[in-house]
Amino acid sequence: MKEQKNLMEWLNQMVGEPYYFSHFLAFFSYFIVRSSAANVLSLQTTQLLLHREIQAILAFLILAAYKMVREETWEGFIADTLFFGKIFLIALTLIMDYHLTLWYIVVFSVIYVLAQQPPFEELGSSSKLTPLQLEALLTEGNTSRFWLVEFRASFSSGCRRAGRCFPELSITYSNKNLSFGIVDLGLFPNAAEKFGISPGGSMGQLPTYILFENATEVSRFPEFNFEATPTPPITKQLLVRHFELDRLLLEYINGK
């Protein structure tokens, strides 16, 4: 049921969102080009192309199935499958004509520049906060003992891929002792320096998650020395383990 809902959600976005619709048109155009090229290419080239197309489809299906099992978010799965599709399509066009290959590279580059993958919009049990609101909630002392805050930006591909992890965690773990908040650094870039987040360069620090206890930072992910080791992909299991959310939930249930 959940997979069917995700499929319908993606189909609606494919029609209404420029990012998905432009990719659909680009991939669909290959079938038009392919049917036209069949009248021009030699028999040997046509047979080679058909053989490579079968191999590309099988490889694509295997990779898509692998990503479907490994990826936690629908956005991450779609981003990866579109990337694989682009690679295979460009490889197939090399068999027909390198000018066609260059054309598709330009098309996909234009889509990358002009259209972004839509972010996950639902909040779950989390709250969108301004930096001033967050500071007030942390310093007043009459709200939750713990605040887990996600610092994100819509222009970060990492934030878009992991967009639904935080809201879904908030539904499971929110209670009177633990609240979840979201601060958009795209809207409030000055907050990045205040909380020690570097949004520049490769965007390796976005999203950043910080756990506050009574207005004091007790943990964050990624750590300050995140450049020393590669940052693993954001997953719900990773955040639960890093911030010990199961322990915090048990402490609340046991009244500690």
From TrEMBL:
The chain crosses the membrane at residues 20-41, 53-69, 89-115. Keywords: Membrane, Transmembrane, Transmembrane helix. The keyword Transcription does not apply. This is Thioredoxin-related transmembrane protein 2. It comes from Hibiscus sabdariffa (roselle).
